Amino acid sequence: MITIHLRYEIDADKLADFEEYGRRWVHLVNRFGGTHHGYFLPSEGDSDIAYALFSFPGFAAYEQYRIDSATDPECRAAIELARTTGCIKRYERRFLRPLDANPQP
Asked: What are the transmembrane regions (predicted)?
């Protein structure tokens, strides 16, 4: 399993636009075979930082999602929403793996 951690710097004045963007991607990641763990929006502290986490069974499945989503109309519309509203200033992507709490000897 691979989990993708996204850290967004957002325009705090366009939080509603970013929320709509996030709602779309939760649905889309799940439709493409991933498991979206949600978007985490500013509450206390920094008002311009948000996070998202989603997982795929492995890196190959994630890469297939990237290929397939590049031409998907709903994905393109979500990207266009972020672009036209300017709700996302920048983002960082990290790839994580879960710790196996019960490794086999």
From this structure: none
